[in-house]
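JOB MANIFEST
job_type = single_chain_structure
chain_count = 1
residues = 63
[input]
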Amino acid sequence: CIERNAMASVKAVNAARMALRGDGSHYVSLDSVIKTMRETGADMKTKYKETSRGGLAVNILEC
C-alpha cells in the first residue's frame, strides 16, 4: 500500500537524522543487527514476509 511506503520513508529519514546526530558510538553493532535480522527472517514463514501471500494482503482488497 502507498501509505505503508510513505510511512517507511518517513521512518528511514528519521533514522538517518538520528544516526547523523550521534557521536559515532553505538550500543549495538551493525554485525549483531544483521545477524539478528537474518535469523528472524529465517524463522519466519514465507507467507508472512513481503510476498502478498498472507496477512492483510489477502484479507483486505484495497491493499
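[summary]
The chain has one domain: 2-59.
The mean pLDDT is 85.
exit_status = 0
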